[in-house]
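Sequence only, no structure available. Ideas?
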Amino acid sequence: MQQGIVYKVLEEFSLISLAEMEEVRLMNRVDTKYAISLSRLPEVLRGLQSSYYMQEINGSRLNAYRTVYLDTETRAMYLAHHNGYRVREKIRVRAYRDSQSVFLEVKDKNNKGQTRKRRLELPDIMAYKQDDAETFLHTNSKYRPATLLPSLENNFYRITLVNKRKSERLTIDLNLSFRSLTPDSVEKRLDDLVIIELKQQGFQPSFAKKLFSELHIYSLSLSKYCLGTVMTVPEIKNNLFKKKMIRINKIRKKQYEFF
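Reply:
I predicted one. Tokens follow.
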């Protein structure tokens, strides 16, 4: 029932094409993340409708993504985030299924909270071992390609919005699933959680931020990679994420208690 309401609201947005979205790539940006229950998504979308366009790809406004995260055997990138390092890196291969494109992506965060993303197009999601991909990693990552292993698979559907001034993007991810790429291969789903990410050139006024404040939706800094790792690798060090996981579970249960 809830999914049906979401689809109906999606039909009410003005549209923007994938080609037009290239004007708002924001490869160097500041990201702010939020989490809500699926039950609140129609309310949020209606609040955003007057000020944002919605991306449509091949007739679809809800686009499928598949991501494979790479990490070292000791999960150095996960632990850097867990341990609170302000300067950190994430490496992933992402398949944008509706546009039938695949990219190897390196995301760096600096000590000012700014994110820089570089990417290389690949023929398929496992082609990160090819020579050009290894050259790309040698140039753009501090981690050596030979030390990287597939760590986690993540699938989800994404709604992408851009404000009408074309100065920021909002991505809204739902139907999240995770699978650890380990011998025991644990799988988890989060069908009742929605992750929203505001991407801006820098910290600046935003209609979305104002709306979220009015709706008592507060930012939550936790990556999908870390969330999926905590959920599917029970033996992993996660004590510094416990408060965030408690908060996420409260959101999923629609108990809006924040700290």
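Helices lie at 2-10, 18-21, 41-48, 76-82, 131-140, 207-214, 224-232, 242-252.
Hope that gets you unstuck.
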